[in-house]
Design a protein that fits this description.
Elements: E1 4-13, E2 16-26, E3 31-35, H1 42-49, E4 57-62, E5 65-66, H2 72-77, E6 80-82, H3 95-101, H4 111-116, H5 119-138, H6 154-167, E7 172-176, H7 184-199, E8 203-207, H8 211-217, E9 220-225, E10 228-233, H9 235-239, H10 242-247
Parallel strand pairs: 3-8, 3-9, 6-7, 7-8
Antiparallel strand pairs: 1-2, 1-4, 4-5, 9-10
Length: 251
């Protein structure tokens, strides 16, 4: 069974469909690409999956459970995590504090315990700090742990957002243009991390305009144009589909 399944999903704005009759799936342990020209409806799809936009029709299932009407907070607790096109960080906080924030849903001690400095709260925070540092090591950013997030480059801020998303320990990870603005070397170093994450059984849905990155990374690719699915399959097959060449590549 797929981790994520969309059944005839649609979303209208002002009576016009931004996404229409979309059926697709993302499997656990696999990286599924979602590509298409600007305005194709890709981010709208991710926002519906994440509970930030209500569906106009259709159904979204997570591991076989209908989650079509669930709010973003509930979906987060079920293991849905995402990054955004526009980076959303706590700019004045340190890199480590931003990543630590991602572990919030795993906290078990009460706010009162933390305020009183009880041993249980201290032990939990120490454990979460250790796990945060493990992520920083994984993304080769441990030396920047105490730096304010706002002081770092765009590429480093992208990495912080991805670490924070992984800190939630997702079952479904939604990546909205994660390597935008990065060079190939930076992008391919992240590709290895994404492969490792998928190998742990996480389903990854990737929106990306970098076709070299998509072809190198994705196990399966779905193509949207004007809110409709026009092609899907292996990356090499999809990019050579005449409908994709016309709609996405513009030739």
């Amino acid at each position: 069974m797929s981790m994520l399944t969309l059944h005839e999903v649609g979303r209208d704005f002002g009576g016009l469909p931004a996404v229409d009759s979309l059926s697709m799936a993302a499997e656990a342990g696999k990286i599924t690409g979602l590509i298409g020209p600007n305005g194709a409806g890709k981010t709208t799809v991710v926002n519906m999956i994440a509970g930030l936009l209500k569906l106009s029709r259709g159904r979204v299932e997570l591991d076989g459970q209908d989650v079509s009407t669930m709010e973003a907070q509930h979906l987060s607790h079920m293991g849905v995590s995402r990054t955004f096109q526009n980076i959303r960080l706590i700019k004045e906080a340190s890199v480590l504090e931003n990543v630590l924030a991602g572990f919030h849903r795993h906290e078990t001690t009460s706010t009162l315990s933390s305020l009183l400095g009880l041993p249980s709260a201290f032990r939990e925070r120490r454990a979460l700090l250790r796990r945060s540092m493990d992520l920083l090591e994984r993304f080769d950013m441990a030396d920047l742990a105490d730096w304010p997030a706002a002081s770092l480059s765009y590429g480093h801020q992208r990495r912080i957002e991805m670490m924070r998303a992984l800190a939630t320990e997702p079952r479904l990870l939604l990546l909205d243009e994660p390597v935008a603005g990065m060079n190939d070397a930076e992008a391919y170093s992240l590709a290895e991390i994404f492969r490792d994450v998928a190998a742990q059984g996480v389903a990854i849905l990737l929106i990306e305009h970098n076709m070299r990155f998509v072809r190198r990374l994705c196990d399966h690719v779905c193509v949207l144009a004007s809110g409709r699915l026009i092609s899907q399959g292996a990356a090499e097959t999809v990019v050579n589909d005449p409908r994709v060449i016309e709609a996405y590549l513009g030739s």
